[in-house]
Amino acid sequence: MRLWTIHPGYLDPVGLVALWREALLAAAVLSGQTRGYRHHPQLIRFREAADSRGAMEFYLEEVWREAQRRGYRFDPARIPHWLGEAAAAVPPAAGMLPETLEQLAAERDHLTEKLAQRHPAWPSLPRGALLPQPHPLFRLVVGPPRPWEKSPAAQKWQGLQQNFSISPYSEIVTPEIPHRTPRKG
């Protein structure tokens, strides 16, 4: 199960369908309708929300909106407490959940690798310092990838934390670039 921080618009068709199914399963888990996946780490950030079911419903609504933009026929009635398209057009939960910049970067790298194997013709994600847009549910904050993230970028961060005592969610301070004085004549 992967509930992407990345906006669903970056996913290829296989990824978008998989996200829809996995988010529906997550909604069932959060509402107590199934016993499987109760302890899945991807659900931690939704459980931390004041309204975990509402957060998941908003997450699903945005996945549904992306499917609509592409002409797919995802059934919105499968979203718990679906109030219709008019209600879904007003995002009450936008920016509800904090997520770190490095988590978004780790997911970008992970998705880039998946797309290179599965769908090479799919448009590429921003690279380097550029980050893709997050799902509107998430508000970006400074910090490392989540401890449950298993991507190489996340593992690199975890190693840095162990070796240099970097605390999670701390402010990143960058050193000043030394200025050189030009030589005279």
Task: Kindly describe this structure.
The chain is mainly alpha-helical and 185 residues long. It has one domain: Endonuclease V (Orthogonal Bundle). The protein has helices at residues 13-30, 44-47, 52-70, 85-88, 101-118, 152-164, and strands at 97-100, 138-141. Helix 1 packs antiparallel against helix 3 (52-70). The N and C termini lie far apart (64 Å).
Give the name of the CATH architecture: Orthogonal Bundle
Helix content: 40-55%
Classification by helices and strands: mainly alpha
Tell me, briefly, the overall form. Answer: globular
Mean pLDDT across all amino acids:
79
Oligomer: single chain
What's the helix-strand series?
HHHHEHEH
Number of helices: 6
Briefly, what CATH class? Mainly Alpha
Provide the β-strand percentage band. under 5%
Low-pLDDT parts are 163-183
Radius of gyration: 19 Å
Main beta sheet: strand number and arrangement?
2 strands, parallel
What number of domains? 1
Q: How many individual β-strands?
A: 2
Distance between the termini: 64 Å
List keywords for this structure.
Endonuclease V; mainly alpha; 2 strands; 185 residues
Strand and helix layout:
Layout (H helix, E strand, L loop, with lengths): L12 H18 L13 H4 L4 H19 L14 H4 L8 E4 H18 L19 E4 L10 H13 L21
Parallel strand pairs: 1-2
